[in-house]
Write a structure and sequence with these properties.
globular; six-stranded mixed sheet; single chain; 17 helices; eight-stranded mixed sheet; alpha/beta; hydrolase; Purple Acid Phosphatase, chain A, domain 2; 2 domains; 5'-nucleotidase,  domain 2; 28% strand; 2',3'-cyclic-nucleotide 2'-phosphodiesterase
Amino acid sequence: MPACRRLAALLLTGTMVFGGLDAEAQEAKSDQIDVQILSTTDLHMNVMDYDYYADKPDPGVGLVRVASLIRKARAEKPNTLLVDAGDLIQGTPMGDYVARVQGLGPGKFQPIIAALNALGYDAAVMGNHEFNFGLDYAVAAEKEAKYPVLAGNVNRVEDGQPLFPAGVILDRDFTDGAGAKHTVRVGVVGVLTPQIVLWDKDKLEGKVTTSDIVEVAAKTARDLKAQGADVVVAVIHSGLSAAPHQKMAENAGVDVAAIPEVDAVVTGHAHRVFPAADYANLPDADIPHGLIHGKPVVMAGFFGDHLGVIDLILSADPKAHGGKGGWTVAAGHAETRPVLTRVNGKATPLVEPDAAVAAIAKDAHQATLDYVRQPVGKSTGRIETYFSFIADQPALDIVSDAQRQYVAKALAGGPYANLPILSAAAPFKAGGQPGADYFTDVAAGQISLRNVADLYLYPNIVAAVKVTGAQVRDWLEMGARVFNRIDPAKKEPQMLVNRAVPSFNFDVIDGVTWRVDVTQPPRFGGDGKLAPGDNHRIVDLRYNGQPVKDEDEFIVVTNNYRANGGGNFPGLDGKNVVYSGTETIQEIIADYLRAAGTLMPATNHSWGFVPVTAPVTVLYDTNAKAAALLTQYPNLSDVGPGDPGLELFRVDLSPTALAGQVLGK
């Protein structure tokens, strides 16, 4: 880190002096201004503090909660800016209701955009999920904003121009340490993950193209400085990665922080918090002060669980702007503020809901409740995802069966009608980084639309691809990255699941059977490229009891995200799509349940583990409620409490424990 930036960061902690003055004295100087940049990201239509899937309040989420933190922060300091880093309009049943049922137009409005307007946001960047409901809807929703919306690296095909501007200069009257007002010109850069053209290819192809985040951000930052910006803040819907820079990278926050003309960076997309100790591996990162490459960087979690705060000290600079004078950043640091705390598993809200935001969303909230409470069927048993990484689950088989039936009808009588149809599904809610309560759990009895949305979170469109047996095997190998390598020689306990791999990338392909050898390293890296060594975790892959050959051909039903390259699965790049539907998978599941009437949840037993002959201790953590289901898994034993809200189970992978494991229906 440059010495001057490190000195500036230390100044803000009071551990060093700057120019002979401590931090408190520095902030009181008349030629300096303390500016606070407040931020949210990945709100995902969580306007209210409510879990629509469980149909109960949740004080740990919602713009309605983080809005109280915003008002509190504004009361602390006179000079603030408020920005959002994207993924606003999709992510809860309210988002589905507004997009699919209510719609936009005269007399209607997007409630989360209206809430941002009421809170006086200064700028926002679009996120990748803004496009899940189609380009027209995304543009219509964003045009309701009374603040600048940015999307500089998304260009319209028709004219090559940005869908929304790449940057904007905000002239703000800020008060210095002595109480005098000054006009400060704040430049804001807005860019997002370029992969939208892959993930929503069916909605965006031929309409928009994307460019590299860093290239566009760098050019825009230079332009804003040339146009007179005193300070440039990059607001990017992109995460943070320690990987070396690659063009068109998904997570480019570290490289954006290295752009000379950028003074601070607001990030998002990754659903994580920065600064935090788990980012200590980032290059040139100062975690205590929230700096990367000497610049303050923040990521405010997801769903409204945190407020991001960047503090900048601006100093008057008579040499700025070619001698015309202006302001430059002398110091800065970043932090996040949570809406609640958890101690020994007990949640304590730190703020009350904001009444003004709640009032804006009141009607949409009630309409959403009415919508998701509509019954679609019944279930004779419980449907949950607590043991999704231990064995095949009815929760996934319901999705797979619904998808397969739908596509089988669509392909009947066509050129692919005689090919075997497989179906892929993943556990979207299976714990991990989102928290101990992030699981699907539907009680026996009535199934409502909210339960369908719980089973399948995203508004993905059904798709089908034609693949070979070799590609099916690689598909499963990529999904098996979710497992840590179990070292047979290791005596210490080993965790079964690598929680850094999102559960939505653990595709279970129904219609074939296979076993996973967790003593082998993963065959692929997260980028979909072969890892060093000829590693094979997937063994004994069979269709109808017969070994699958590399040249065998199959149809695999999946979603538009996966079929077009989402998750970097090898062999899936949109080129082998043979069917693209128009209905969402949520709608297909709902219709499937209506037709079934009463469902008897059952598993197809698609996969299992290869026995480990060495005496290893393998542990699996899941929600503590899972202990009540232990009798269904004879190779598991309860070890006791794990992290708050979680229970630890020992997984017996010995030949004796797995001897009775039979795969297939």
